[in-house]
């Protein structure tokens, strides 16, 4: 049994998607990021960095794993699925996983801060992070023009990148002119396990609609957290039907 400590964020949804794809039994523990659950001693004992997601493998002597990429690798290696065992195949998956961990996630996260949350609008910062996100999307599109998935067969690399790319509109970045990235996004979104995974836990807010009152309230809450130096909640659309299809 896996204990999953999570919230409705792209990083959180990486693990719920993977667990659904792998068919592993798991228990969900939803942390309220605005309340600061991730900073409480009980969770810091699992993840000293105070960030979601994290897992505890009860069947392996309560072994704890933090960092979403490390959790994905652990689950893949535990089951022998979603990542090849041969060195070259494994390396290809890890390369694209690190691409997300070191590029897509941080750049989109900073785009969200300066485009959505930061009280002062700084055009140079917004342009910097949105522009770098778009550049990374172009890299993905170019690779996917020649490959169905990122690293051979469908893998944890696809899960990790997809969980962020699907929220592009909240970062203020378009997918126009990136047909191969859109094809890949839609293909993965159609998987039943993915559809289940993005609902665990569900998001109460549809943040694909800029004028939605609940979305605006969420942005205000996040802005307050930025001002006091806390961790940001990272939203996702309620379900696949509400995602931007452009």
UniProtKB/TrEMBL annotation:
Span of the signal peptide: none
Enzyme Commission no: 2.5.1.18
UniProt keyword terms in alphabetical order: Transferase
Listed Basic and acidic residues bias regions: 236-246
Keyword DNA-binding: no
Keyword check for Transmembrane: no
Ranges where the GST N-terminal domain occurs: 1-83
GO terms of molecular function: glutathione transferase activity
Xref: PROSITE patterns: GST_CTER, GST_NTER
Cited Pfam families: GST_C (PF00043), GST_N_2 (PF13409)
Gene3D superfamilies tied to this protein: 1.20.1050.10, Glutaredoxin
Residue span of region Disordered: 224-246
InterPro entries per UniProt: Glutathione-S-Trfase_C-like, Glutathione-S-Trfase_C_sf, Glutathione_S-Trfase, Glutathione_S-Trfase_N, GST_C, Thioredoxin-like_sf
Protein name: Glutathione S-transferase
Native species: Piscinibacter sakaiensis
């Amino acid at each position: 049994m896996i204990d999953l400590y999570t919230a409705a964020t792209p990083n959180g949804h990486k693990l719920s998607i993977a667990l659904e794809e792998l068919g592993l039994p798991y228990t969900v523990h939803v942390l309220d990021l605005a309340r600061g659950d991730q900073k409480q001693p009980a969770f810091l004992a699992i993840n000293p960095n105070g960030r979601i997601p994290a897992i505890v493998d009860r069947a392996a002597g309560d072994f704890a794993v933090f960092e979403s990429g490390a959790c994905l690798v652990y689950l893949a290696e535990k089951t022998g699925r979603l990542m090849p065992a041969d060195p070259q195949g494994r390396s290809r998956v890890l390369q694209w996983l690190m691409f997300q961990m070191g590029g897509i996630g941080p750049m989109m996260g900073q785009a969200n801060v300066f485009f959505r949350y930061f009280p002062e609008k700084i055009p140079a910062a917004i342009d910097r992070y949105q522009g770098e996100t778009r550049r990374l999307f172009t890299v993905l599109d170019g690779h996917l023009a020649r490959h169905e998935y990122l690293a051979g067969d469908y893998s944890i690399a696809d899960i990790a990148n997809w969980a962020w790319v699907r929220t592009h509109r909240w970062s203020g970045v378009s997918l126009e002119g990136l047909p191969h990235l859109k094809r890949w996004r839609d293909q993965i979104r159609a998987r039943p396990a993915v559809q289940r995974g993005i609902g665990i836990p569900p998001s109460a807010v549809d943040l694909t609609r800029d004028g939605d009152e609940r979305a605006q309230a969420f942005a205000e809450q996040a802005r307050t957290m930025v001002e006091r130096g806390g961790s940001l909640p990272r939203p996702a659309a309620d379900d696949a039907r509400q995602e931007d299809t452009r």
